[in-house]
Write a structure and sequence with these properties.
The complex is a heterotrimer of chains A (335), B (520) and C (331). By secondary structure, chain B is an alpha/beta fold. Chain B contains 18 helices and 24 strands. In chain B, helix 4 packs across helix 5 and helix 15 packs parallel to helix 16. In chain C, strands 1-4 form a two-stranded antiparallel ribbon. Chain C has a two-stranded antiparallel sheet with strand order 2-3. In chain C, a hairpin with a 3-residue loop joins strand 2 and strand 3. The longest helix of chain C is centred in the C-terminal third of the chain and has 27 residues. Chain C starts with 21 loop residues before the first helix and ends in a 10-residue tail after the last helix. The chains are: A mainly alpha (335), B alpha/beta (520), C mainly alpha (331). Chain B: One of its GO terms (molecular function) is ATP hydrolysis activity.
């Protein structure tokens, strides 16, 4: 949203090798440890094994959403479409696997179809961005509305309850003390990390946030990669929507409510810059844990759970301000 | 360095065929002819210098050579073959690559990725990175220039000089595309390097000559003479000659760059007689320091025009912006007409009677889609208001008066300013500071940039008139000639310091060469 | 350039570029065309629609949307965006319901003042901390919702004393609902203040080119904070209107007005890139959106399509009004 480089002096902009890198990267994990220790000291309920399991389990959906949004943020774009995309996927999967509304019993194929639908919605965001040149926060706001509309249409007034065994087992079955949902989230983080580190898509997403013009000068066509990143993000949201359905045993239009903002918060707290080009999946994973530990801890020490969103709002504003302030220039344009 | 010869692919061209030849290249921009029939020959395995003042057409020419600008007419030949360059990629396919002035590396990728960016080849298979292969590919390139940078280091952790090496290594990748010895363009590669780094770069350039042709562009003429075999000089969008560097002096080059000195008439120098009375001091700067300048002292009297000259990176632009409150300062005291000046914001500067005409007129100077009238009264709202209320009649009569007085050619005062020609836009921007009649200090940052001669002349006359009415002026001129022609006194800045004050009275002007000596 | 490049300045054209393109001309009338077309379509679909009764009902429901969109338009004109308006309005309904027993007749003013203050804080955070406006207001949205949930205990609060909001349910000249009348007056007053003072110039300059505005010495920061303040105040007023209709305050009451409000602004033709547009346009945009809302069921479209339509409208309208010359890389 900031249009940079309007008054950059070349000599002044001469960057020095950075020394603060290690601190910047180690800050969020350190903060996580500090917060964890602090709450452990404050509340005996908090430091129980059960509660830690609980934190991990509740973090699962957010972690998957954050995996998706991180790629978008790395490009310097923003994605507000998670609620709509998740809602559409949540209802879609509920109607495709064994449920009380129709005779479908597609199982895993149903899950894949729901994720495909979500990826398609993400693709629409990306296409609107590169073809119509509409800024991403507007396209994704629009696509979120479209997703919610689709979800409402499919919902059609009767809540679809799922009876599918696989899906029902995700939140309850445990492996090594963690629910399947949590393991799915771990898998997503791993896949996300591999994409970020070892694929052209991931590296280019990173580069687009660093210096999009340079890619163009080097003969790289960035548009397809942007569309692909939004599509990938949509797929992650879709999986997250499916996970919510498995948690609730029912498809809900509001399955994704608030996840867009929570994911942005997690990514930003983890050290991903909104201007793009820095951070990554592992950073975001730490961010997710910070947000969840904080949320859980506050509840454990007796703060109303309704404050959850407020705390996230404060964190995100503070984190962005902390990232932006050191680079502040006079006469800087901030949109 | 296995130069060109891969006999199966590209034919080894005859050694006398130029690596690159430009014939009669023309490029117009609205109001300006940036290139007016440029000819250029780059021979095989030579380092060709390209010299010319600001606006001589160098950057347009370079952009045309790498496909970023499409010329209106003229031809580009590569190794005896006529080519059309429509993009950087096409230029690269013909073996032409450029190291850009603003470094064009992705800061958050590794050096290796930057080197192979866009032509990863075997480094990526099916969209998946093979880091080891990629590192090897990059290492090959770095070996060519004998650099020991770690290819897997993140680019923004490298020093500036190292990044330049990465950039050169990256440009050399075009060898793989074209299968020919490449033509490498270095655009102001030394502007932000330190002297030791510059030496390394020069060694590098001499190495490149073994297997490539190099076009070397720099403001610093001694460097050009040092590293190049031949120098081609541009002036006003035309090629004005070539110099073999052996035995040439910077003065010879500079003479070609500026051509005959314009007549004093052009600057209306004679028309305005300075009064003999001692000038009343208006602006006084003591020890002003900021991020890019330090300990600047400067005095400007009422009615005086003081030019600040300096090469790119001398910090003069930032001094100007700091005076207007648009750039933070670290130390120093500034008084205007005896009163201490608040440098904290542009608002304070405006209130103190300071006006600023930015160099980037289209981005910073004017609000393009707003009308001429609204642009003119944007700052001095009091000139069109009664109390807090805008009086449209007052505004229109005021604006019409200034349109007439400055002979601004616009269909109507309500016309969007972006629809006027550059000269008329600039006059509106200037008028913005004049409408209230309370201006005491005018900071002009390249006020004639991109204007044609007629418009320049009018801006000069206006500056004279204003000075005559007692306004103190600080001028960052577009050329040395302009600075000398317009200024009563010239301050030379170099590396952020005001190093020399040169008197510049009418009738006893210094020559550009006198100044150049002080600048570098 | 040291030497003249062009010898004959007289040949220079007075006007360099052409005027608005046909597409720009069309988009400038888009909201009115859309409004008329919608009215016509709805009348054809249901001849009973064009009656005084249903039109009155339509503009009555549009009032809070008009006010919300009008306030946020100022922020958009400055080049930013305010995504917090709906959450702030929800919070304000809670404020209203909670304060009414104590403050009585002063509650309306108190709520508007509080909302204006909250808007101002967001503006200051945006300007001083240099955080992009959409992040500040997205954070604000989340915070306001949380505060509303906490203080209301996550449920609606009934408003028993209906006298305080009764005036908004009256009719002007027998036909025009008071709420809509007030909304139009608000739009007119804001538009008039802008037109009569240098503010119009300041806002336009800030929106089109913030750096040029700053270097011209215009009070860019204060203008932005002012825009957020007005946007907040409008959210407060919209909240009062909502309470007058629903007789309660609730922490989620206005939440579903965010998309329609953004849609109203962009459908009105105000460019999301800033500078171009007007508050009157948003009034027309809000009427278009309201007609769509009440009209969809009339033509037999399930209301679920409403959301999809908003999404499509927002993207399409932004694409049409965007000033592409301003943004080189679209993020």
């Amino acid at each position: 949203m900031t249009s940079p480089a309007e008054d950059v002096d070349v000599a002044a902009a001469r960057p020095q090798p950075r020394r603060g890198v290690s601190l910047r990267d180690s800050g969020p994990p350190l903060a996580l440890v500090v917060i964890f220790v602090a709450f452990s000291a404050l509340s005996s309920d908090f430091r129980s094994i059960g509660n830690v399991q609980n934190i991990m389990d509740t973090a699962a959906v957010l972690a998957v959403v954050t995996c998706g949004i991180t790629f978008v943020l790395m490009m310097g774009s923003i994605d507000l479409s998670a609620p709509g995309v998740m809602g559409a996927a949540a209802i879609a999967v509920a109607l495709l696997v064994a449920n009380n509304r129709n005779g479908n019993e597609l199982g895993v194929i149903g899950i894949l179809l729901a994720i495909l639908l979500a990826a398609a919605l993400g693709c629409v965001s990306g296409l609107a961005l590169v073809l119509l040149k509409v800024p991403s926060f507007m396209t994704t706001l629009g696509v979120s509305a479209v997703g919610l509309g689709l979800a409402t249409l499919m919902f059609n007034g009767v809540q679809p309850n799922i009876t599918d065994g696989t899906l029902a087992s995700w939140p309850v079955e445990r492996l090594l003390g963690l629910s399947y949902l949590t393991w799915i989230a771990f898998a997503c983080v791993l896949v996300g990390y591999l994409i970020q580190r070892y694929t052209r898509l991931g590296r280019y997403a990173f580069a687009i946030g660093g210096a999009e013009e340079v890619l163009a000068l080097s003969g790289v066509k960035v548009a397809p990669y942007k569309v692909a990143v939004f599509t990938l993000a949509g797929a992650f949201y879709g999986l997250a929507g499916v996970m919510v359905t498995s948690q609730l045993s029912a498809g809900l239009v509001q399955a994704g409510k608030g996840y867009d903002f929570a994911a942005i918060t997690a990514a930003v707290v983890g050290g991903t810059l909104l201007t793009g080009g820095r951070g990554g999946i592992l950073h975001s994973a730490v961010g997710v844990l910070i947000v969840m530990v904080l949320t859980n801890g506050l509840v454990q020490v007796g703060v109303s759970p309704y404050w959850q969103g407020g705390v996230q709002g404060l964190i995100v504003v503070a984190a962005v301000a902390a990232a932006v302030l050191p680079q502040r220039r006079r006469n800087q344009v901030t949109k | 360095m296995i130069p060109p010869a891969n006999p199966e692919i590209g034919q080894q061209p005859h050694p006398m065929v130029p690596a690159l030849e430009v014939k009669n290249l023309v490029k117009h921009y609205p109001g300006v002819k940036a290139l007016d029939g440029v000819d250029l020959v780059v021979r095989q395995n030579e380092v060709l210098g390209l010299a010319g003042e600001n606006g001589a057409g160098k950057s347009t020419l370079l952009k045309a050579l790498v496909g970023l600008v499409r010329p209106d007419s003229g031809e580009i030949w590569v190794r005896g073959e006529k080519v059309r360059l429509r993009s950087v990629v096409e230029a690269a396919n013909h073996g032409i690559g450029m190291v850009f002035q603003e470094q064009s590396l992705v800061p958050n990728l590794t050096a290796a990725e930057n080197i192979v960016l866009g032509s990863e080849g075997a480094g990526v298979r099916g969209g998946v990175y093979r880091w080891e292969t990629m590192r090897k590919l990059a290492q090959e390139q770095l070996d060519k220039i004998g650099s020991d940078i770690n290819p897997l280091a993140r680019t923004d952790t490298l020093s500036f000089a190292d990044r330049q090496m990465v950039e050169i290594a990256k440009v050399l990748r075009i060898e793989q595309r074209s299968q020919h010895p490449p033509v490498i363009i270095l655009d102001e590669p030394t502007s932000v390097l330190e002297s030791k780094e510059i030496e390394t770069l020069f060694t590098q350039v001499r190495r490149l000559r073994e297997f490539a042709s190099v076009v070397f562009v720099s403001h610093r003429l001694d460097e050009v003479l040092d590293v190049c075999d031949r120098v081609s000089v541009l002036r006003g969008g035309q090629s004005v000659g070539e110099v073999a560097t052996a035995g040439a002096a910077p003065a010879d080059l500079h003479r070609m760059m500026i051509g005959s000195t314009g007549s004093d008439d052009h600057y209306h120098d004679q028309a305005y007689e300075r009064s003999a009375e001692p000038l009343r001091p208006m602006l006084s700067i003591r020890g002003l320091s900021g991020k890019t300048f330090r300990d600047v002292d400067l005095e400007v009297a009422a009615g005086e025009i003081v030019g600040i000259v300096g090469v790119h990176g001398s910090g003069r632009e930032d001094v100007c912006r700091a005076l207007f409150g648009a750039e933070p300062t670290l130390a120093g005291e500034v008084t205007l007409d005896g009163k201490r000046l608040d440098l904290s914001s542009t608002r304070a500067a405006v209130a103190a009677g300071i006006g600023y005409v930015p160099a980037e007129r289209k981005i910073e100077g004017m609000v393009g889609p707003m009308s001429v009238a609204d642009n003119m009264t944007l700052t001095k709202q009091q000139s069109r208001c009664a109390g807090p209320i805008v009086m449209p009649k007052r505004q229109s009569s005021l604006v019409d008066r200034w349109i007439e007085r400055l002979s601004i050619r616009t269909p109507h005062r309500g016309t969007q300013i972006q629809r006027l020609s550059g000269g008329n836009q600039q006059k509106v921007v200037l008028a913005r500071w004049l409408v209230a009649g309370d201006i005491r200090l005018l900071l002009l940052d390249h006020p004639t940039r991109g204007l044609d001669i007629g418009a320049r002349s009018e801006v000069y006359r206006l500056m004279r008139e204003l000075a005559d009415s007692g306004v103190a002026t600080v001028l960052l001129a577009d050329s040395l000639e302009e600075a000398i022609g317009m200024s009563d006194r010239i301050v030379v800045m170099s590396d952020g310091k005001a190093t020399k004050h040169v008197p510049c009275p009418s009738g006893d002007k210094p020559t550009p060469l006198d100044l150049v000596k002080e600048m570098v | 350039m040291s030497t003249p490049v062009i010898a004959q300045p007289a040949a220079e054209p007075v006007v360099v570029k052409g005027g608005p393109t046909p597409a720009q001309r069309l988009t400038s009338f888009m909201p009115v065309i859309a409004l008329v077309a919608l009215l016509a379509a709805l009348t054809i679909a249901d001849p009973d629609f064009l009656t005084q009764k249903s039109l009155t009902a339509a503009i009555r429901t549009s009032a809070p949307l008009v006010v919300l969109a009008a306030g946020a338009t100022l922020v958009v004109l400055c080049g930013g965006i305010d995504l917090s308006i709906a959450a702030l309005a929800s919070l304000s309904t809670v404020f209203f319901a909670m304060w009414l027993p104590d403050l009585g007749g002063l509650t309306t003013l108190a709520v508007i003042a509080a909302a204006a203050g909250i808007g101002a804080i967001q503006g200051i955070a945006h300007v001083v901390l240099r955080i992009p406006s959409f992040i500040v207001t997205l954070g604000g949205m989340s915070i306001f919702s949380a505060v509303a949930l906490v203080i209301s205990d996550a449920g609606p609060i009934r408003v028993v004393d209906r006298d305080a909001t009764n005036w908004l349910t009256l009719y002007v000249a027998g036909y025009i609902p008071m709420a809509f009348f007030v909304a139009v007056v608000v739009v007119a007053v804001i538009a008039l203040v802008l037109k009569l003072t240098p503010l119009q110039s300041y806002i336009t300059a800030t929106g089109y080119s913030e750096s040029a505005a700053r270097l011209a010495g215009t009070p860019v920061d204060r203008v932005k904070v002012g825009a957020f303040t007005v946007s907040g105040a409008c959210a407060g007023l919209a909240a009062v209107m909502l309470v007058s209709r629903n007789f309660s305050g609730s922490p989620t009451m206005a939440d579903n007005l965010l998309l329609p409000a953004v849609a109203a602004i962009v459908v009105g033709g105000t460019a999301i890139t800033g500078g171009h547009g007007s508050i009157w346009r948003s009034l027309v945009g809000a009427l278009v959106i309201t007609l769509l809302r009440v009209g969809l069921p009339i033509v037999g479209v399930p209301s679920a399509y409403e959301q999809i339509l908003y999404g499509a409208i927002i993207v399409a309208a932004v694409a049409l009004t965007l000033d592409r010359s301003k943004v080189l890389t679209i993020k």
